[in-house]
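Q: Make up one entry.
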Amino acid sequence: MRKRAGLPKAAAAAAILSALPLSGAVAQDRQPPPEIAEKLALCVTCHGENGVPVVDKAPVLFGQEMFYLLVQLRDYRAGRRANETMSPIAKELSDAEMKGLATYFSEQKWPRIEATAEVGDAAKAERLAVEGQCSQCHLSGFVGNSRVPRVSNQKPDYLGQTMSDFRDDRRKNAPAMAAIVKGWSDDDIAAMARYLATL
């Protein structure tokens, strides 16, 4: 599948939405509730109809914990987390729509992301993980829980961007994470992102 480079503006996503038929536009394990169907069709223009994102720096949402997803949507709406695409979209979501979308995505099966690591990535990433005590929050296997995300088999471009944002103080809604990656180099972040993506 050919990927688009970078996240589109919200207006561009809305234009794509207008071309999508709502019935059959989203491939899923069950039909979404009608009250979120239109918003969901907008979500999949970046995050993918089958859970595999079609935009490089968009994360996998299928199978992520409901409460974590809900908190992130609230943070986008409140300005605690910022993204040129997600921020304006979240501002238009009601509390009920946020909960409905978070619940829907959490109930889907995590898709398998194809990724490759480079020689030396595993050793470097495992050292960084021990030093940063990553498994204390993300748990064994980096599967996450209701308060921290699953990062195993997540999109490497998204992981790299997210860790860079924490390190460089562009993302401020998880101070503990920012503190851990503060001293990481670009090479450290790239190795960790590639390693996690292959798990």
